[in-house]
Amino acid sequence: MTDKNNKTPQQPDEKQADPKQTEQVAVKESNPVVQLVVFAVIVAVLAYLAVQNPRAARAVALVALGFGGVVMIHELGHFIVAKLGGIKVEAFSIGFPPVFLGIRKLKKGFRFRLLPRPGQAQQIEAGDNETEYQIGLVPLGGFVKMLGQSDTGSVEQTEDPRSFINRPTWIRIAVVAAGVTFNAIAAMLLFMALFSRGIDLIPAVVGNVLPNSPAHEAGLRPGDEVVAVNGERFVDYESLLLAPVLSGRGEPISLTVRRDDREETIRVVAEQPAVAVGEMAGMRSIGVSPAHTLTIAPEIARDPEDVQWLYDLTGLRPGDEIKAVNNQPIRMPWEFREKVSQTLTPMATLTVSRSWPEGSARTQQTVTFPVRIGPVVPNFRQEFDLAHIFGIKPVLKVTSVADRPQVMGLTRRLADSIRRLFAGEEETDNNDDNAEQKLMAGDLLIRIGQAHYPNFKEVRTITEAHKNQDLTLVVLRPDPAGELREVELTVRPFEVPRSDRVTIGFAAELAMDRTMTAQLFEDVAADVPPQIPSGSTIVSVDGRPVETFFEVAQILRDNRGKRVSIEFVDAQGRAGGTGMVVPERGGIHMRSELETGLASLPFEELRVTYEADNSLQAIGMGFKKVRQFVVRTVLTLYRLIFGQLPATALMGPVGIITVSYTIADASLIHYLYFLGLLSSILAVMNLMPLPVLDGGVIVMLTIEKIIGRPINEKVQAAVTYVGLALILALMLMVTYNDILRLLFG
User: Which fold does the domain 388-425+436-589 belong to in CATH?
Assistant: First the structure.
């Protein structure tokens, strides 16, 4: 059948041309020599780069094939259902233009077009296949071109009954919905294959339980393995994370927990925590976190710069296994956390088993870290937690100070970075003219507003109450002779960009290197709380001189159940004394942390192999995994629409490709798992009811079915262009986010 929309006017002599002559004319008209040379040069350059860095080339190739494959499967769904629905498909392309090769089955033989000119017309005769199969030079997906269908909203008017616009509405809806359906099916098949082979995932093992959380109150403990959630036995950490989010408000979640080789059922009701960060912020939770091992992540060894950076910062090597904390042996990660938190000493020593360089014999090494003491945080229901030891609290000390951040646009930040790069300048603070009138590291905070010797909660509350207003601080600062002098400062709290936090711009911790006390904490188990005025300096405990709060804490802890004496000098220099009976239990409400220079030590994630016993189980596991990712995507969209998630959290194509490269470089199996995730997300995103997206087209077709006639072309075009503008704006925004992450972290 000859398609009047595609064939060109023919000259008399052309009507008699055989297929071979037609092909020769097409090739001659395309004049591919220049394009072929350019293509050969590009291939040669890529081949050279691949030889120079084969590992990077492999990762780039996997990203291109994987990302393109996900899009390709989507288009394949449209193609197959369009064919089954009797719609004429003019072109089906693997990859995007420019076209490298076009192949069409003719009545006799095949027609090959190598690097044809864009828009080049073709002669199609009776008996020729209606579809040209193309290979594009950009291997990031593909497309389907159907007769009478256009992505711009307008359609090609034709009387051909096989045109997209002339087919029944239900067939057109099926064609449009086929893309997302194929993505979901492909993701499930991919997960089925991975679970049939076996893949390492993060298990539903409790690594930490937050104080005052539903999990803590229900009796969950670190090390518990959750083997079933609401009776469902296939459980990884993703399942444990989503169960609270999907549960109804006030609805109990049934967890089957394996502990000490026996199982028990625990019922817990999820709540929204007072403070939450990361992707699950604003969602209900039970207050647990995943487990890790005691081994420093071996994958750091892939990058020599990272290896040296880690060693310079912490003294640790990739593959180091922690064996003891302060000479106390440990076997499990939660024991490490417990031993470190109980370290009330200025320094902590880790004993590690090391094999470095890789493959060498293991040796015992010791690594020493300074210890920072702070409140027991995070607390599930309370943003602010008070730190004390048997009711006695050290004063707060400023540890670091940051100026108010300048909110710059991307262009200004890039220009500023480039200027400093070429000028050889370091990023410095140019506002040191009045350094004495600013907070400085080492300052002791003795008054904020009207609160004397404040605690963490008072600092936060008063700071938030003085947003963009002057606030008076009084600190103690050592003079050149080392004597503490009062300094009064005026600061103006400000809101941190892209957050709801109000800050003065400093970090504080408990001043454990001194024995100066803040306000007493009355709610302790001591029979008679110690009577020590705020601002006093403790000079001895139980008759033993002390110079740091570490010593105070150790002596009190060593004298549980006994009465001890405490001697001090108050803020006016007057000597005094008191006593207390140290409680036998509790009383210590502060937590030690290793001062590593990192948010936390880069321990290897705990992973276990999830492998199906049979094909039927693999199908079930694959289906459940797709459902998990679909639900998470829907929840993310919900939170974005209702303002629970900042737009800066979104990732665009640049970010996705960057993440894809990282995963592809690390593990092929986990990259395939990531592609299953990507395919699941694509299925949901394409169903959004926005013009241009499949969901928007389905909505318009449904309206057409309801009103009994096609929507006016002008209306379709207007709605489509609005949708295109929204999509373009979204793409620009997420790409902007991606660039900021890449350039500025």
Answer: Pdz3 Domain (2.30.42)
